[in-house]
Write a structure and sequence with these properties.
mainly beta, 117 residues, seven-stranded mixed sheet, 1 helix
Length: 117
Amino acid sequence: QVQLVESGGGLVQAGGSLRLSCAASGSIFVINVINAMGWYRQAPGKQREAVASITRGGSTNYADSVKGRFTISRDNAKNTVYLQMSSLKPGDTANYYCNANGRSAFWGRGTQVTGSS
């Protein structure tokens, strides 16, 4: 019904920046009822954790570990959510997954972010 495709991951030195994008496509009827979109991450050997989320109206939430460093934004016209990551740390290394919640939850396949020391 809805496909989420992430892009923008890569290798970056500590202190560097990356911007992730996630574009939703598929049934316009399903997309139009999506409220919250966000990002999760999962590092090797660890559980998936929430990073940031944003509602259709623009309300945001962040994990304490990324507050002040990451910024989530959304373009409703493009059905796209972004995650601007700054001051990256090696601890931010993980596979980052896009999530969208409407009547169902949808997930992307993930994009790898590696912060090198």
